[in-house]
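Session log. Operator J.P. requested a structure for one protein chain; no other inputs attached. Running the standard single-chain path with token output.
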Amino acid sequence: MKKWLFLLMLVLLWIQPLYADTSSSTATQGTPSGSITDPGYKFDPVIEGDVVTHEFTLSNTGTAPLKILKVQSG
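Structure written below.
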């Protein structure tokens, strides 16, 4: 009996993704695409401890919302 219950659970877990809601897929909504103006900006040499800033402009040139999940310096 336990064997049949276990097999039934496996089958149900395998079938569930087949019936997942695909109405919000990127194929129907479009694709996001990010564009950065001047992505290779080079900072001039500075004295240690000075604060240096530069503003990067990011634009979404795609047809879906663009989500920025992580940003890091190179």
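Operator note: Residues 2-15 form the longest helix (14 residues).
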